[in-house]
Task: inverse folding
């Protein structure tokens, strides 16, 4: 059970890190541009579902799941 918690926690933590990293990706990564344009993730509308709004909770939940998995596992 503890290994499953650690694996799920790592997956949630990877999602959170990827969601944060999207904000720092350049828009024209392979083209030379005079201005520094970066991709910024913003919600498109009130009725649309946005996965990036769960970055902070995913970061916290992933960290907590990994901690519980490590401490609840005991010595095997």
Result:
């Amino acid at each position: 059970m503890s290994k499953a918690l650690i694996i799920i926690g790592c997956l949630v933590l990877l999602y959170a890190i990827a969601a944060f990293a999207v904000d720092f990706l350049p828009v024209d990564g392979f083209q030379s541009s005079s201005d520094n344009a970066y991709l910024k993730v913003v919600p498109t509308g009130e009725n649309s579902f946005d996965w990036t709004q769960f970055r902070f909770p995913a970061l916290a939940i992933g960290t907590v799941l990994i901690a519980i998995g490590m401490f609840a596992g005991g010595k095997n």
The chain has one domain: 2-72. The mean pLDDT is 77. Residues 2-72 form one domain. The chain has two helices and no strands.
